[in-house]
Amino acid sequence: MDIQINNLKKYYKDKLVLDIDNLQIKKRIITGIIGPNGAGKSTLLNIIAGMDKDFKGSVLYKGKSIDKNIYKDMTLVLQRPNLFKRSVYENIEYPLKIRSISKGERKVKVENILKRLDILDLKDKKGHLLSGGESQKVSLGRALVFTPKLLLLDEPTSNIDTNSTNLIEREILNYNKINKSTVIIITHDLKQAKRLCDEIVCIERGKVGGIDGVF
Ligand SMILES: Nc1ncnc2c1ncn2[C@@H]1O[C@H](COP(=O)(O)OP(=O)(O)OP(=O)(O)O)[C@@H](O)[C@H]1O
């Protein structure tokens, strides 16, 4: 098990937005989180990512409380990513730079990602000037480039056209297969969940529900 959640309660002011007795997310597979708008999906992903520590209950990663240790293993790709005001190349290179990967190796890895995600033409564009869909692709590239053991994706194709969605889905599947990384993906698209996910968790009004009748 990679992630174990017990008696999780999350409030915004006095409103209970997550109330999960027990949820286990297995390692090395792709788990989908589905559910209607406002159900609590992003809130849950932020908690798993260690971005939100203001909750009650226990959230464990590899049997330990989520703390700074998770950051070296994990990356969270947001629906509306914050990219640096630097070139796309530098944005994708950044996680490698802070891990002291040599310049030559960085170049090989970044160019490989640019090709795989079909964004070579964006290489010199500034990160903050990209469209929504372009930003999502670059943000995914910035995540995949350092092969995190835990990849968290918040609606990674919400702004993406059909062709690019196919390409991104292929990359996510290959990534999981080749690296045996744990992937958690929030999606509104039930067909996408079926195409990508080994397991599916349905969140409704903050609670984990069954998926009977969903497909
Ligand atoms: N910072 C915040 N302050 C107050 N309430 C919030 C905050 N962030 C989210 N909420 C509320 O918490 C609930 C869960 O929000 P969340 O973004 O987790 O839902 P979601 O399932 O990801 O929705 P969507 O599918 O629309 O992205 C919603 O009712 C939302 O309005």
Automatic annotation (TrEMBL):
Residue ranges occupied by any ABC transporter domain in the UniProt entry: 3-214
Keyword ATP-binding part of the UniProt annotation: yes
GO molecular function: ATP binding; ATP hydrolysis activity
Keyword Transport: yes
SMART domains in the record: AAA
Keyword terms: ATP-binding, Nucleotide-binding, Transport
Protein name: Tungstate transport system ATP-binding protein
Lineage per the UniProt record: Bacteria, Bacillati, Bacillota, Clostridia, Peptostreptococcales
